[in-house]
Design brief:
mainly alpha; Recoverin, domain 1; 2 strands; 6% strand; globular
Length: 96
């Protein structure tokens, strides 16, 4: 029981550090950090450390087996990235 409490605390600390850099900008989430038991899959319990993955777990779990594989995680990561890096255009005549 004591081991589980320590693991949860360590995981929480790791995920906080992975989610944001010191300057407040977002960083990429590491699959290995979420796969706390090292089985090559992220369970819904492990995903709970990442708010967006938790909210989109069923989408990320493309084959519906109840866990997210590395390939599924990589695909999900690409899907949640912005569709375009093109800046929004501003009307040339905003007053008209």
């Amino acid at each position: 029981m004591k081991h589980g409490v320590v693991s949860t605390a360590v995981l929480s600390a790791l995920m906080t550090g992975l989610a944001f850099a010191g300057d407040g900008t977002k960083k990429t989430v590491d699959f290995a950090a979420l796969d706390t038991n090292g089985d090559g899959r992220i369970s819904s319990t492990e995903a709970a450390a990442h708010e967006k993955l938790t909210a989109q777990f069923r989408t990320a779990d493309a084959d519906g087996d109840g866990s997210v594989s590395r390939a599924e995680f990589d695909q999900w990561s690409k899907m949640k990235a912005p569709a375009s890096s093109t800046p929004a255009t501003t009307p040339t005549n905003p007053g008209q």
